[in-house]
Amino acid sequence: MFAPLRSRQREDWVAGYTFLAPAAIILLIFLVVPILFALWISFRDWSGLNPPAQSTWVGLRNYADLLIQNNIRRTDFFIALKNTTFYALGVVPLQTALALLLASIVNQKWLKGRTFFRTSFYLPSITSSVAISLIFMWLYQRNGLINRLIEAIMLGNVQPINWLASPNGLIHNLLSLFGITLRTAPPWLTHTEILGQTVWQWISGPSVALTAIMLLNIWTTSGTMMLIFMAALQDIPRAVYEAAIMDGATSAQTFRYVTVPMLRPTIFFVVTIGLIGTYQVFDQVYVMTAGGPVKTTLTVAYLVYRNGFDNAAMGVGAATAFILFVLIFVLTLIQRRVIGEKAA
Which residues of 126-158 are buried (b: 16+ CB within 10 A; e: fewer)? Predict the structure, then answer.
């Protein structure tokens, strides 16, 4: 009686794993094996120019160079970490808010041409990031369209901005309006060092050049986030809104107390992928500034490339990548605790 049943279960097991085998093999070859190889390389001194078998085991030295030892690698890593953190703090909230705003607008039934607007807002997300970066490099030129537009708005009473060549931090620029500069700042700001940089350098804020890249990234990624929010908005039961209207809630109150709480799982997802994307930003930096000026657009992901390929230190590059992975993982856990996944 039980023999045919066990035979059928065995056949189902074989059939299931047979269908899974191609995808599992591809993931194993192109994902798991490279990750394990990179982890192995992170403990070795390898230039990338000779066979990996000729590399030298150095243990945790690559990680120590980045986190503990007082050298240029550690300084560059924390500069990149500071820049990337400012980048994430500027991009993630703005792209999330803009995407939610756009999704709320194009989701309205009274809006004519909704398909056109949805396509227009989403188009930058599927366009080549290199092509967009080259276009924005032209727009950000000293005599480019953006400076011309600012001059027109300000009636010519403003100097052109060196968008991609200015290392000045936004917070430093703000403090200078109140007479606080490097020369007039308190000594504890300019002489106290934390992880290879002074407090004054840590509070610089994103540079003008990094801000230009941030604006580009917000514009290109908001379309994808908008589609995610649109799907979530259409999944909210209409009865919930009708109940809010019956209770006399205004449009603003409905959005605040009904829409946003119901979108909490989606907000968590959008913030998570936005956080991961900002900490992995590379292509725009590579095309537009190559980490300059004065390392103010140097990001952790670009530092992985520079350590591995420009400096022929693949072990240090791999160690940088795994530190970035741990950092993203920890930040994801923190924001999961803060935002939460469950809808209110």
Answer: eeebeebbeebbebbbeebebbeeeeeeeeeee
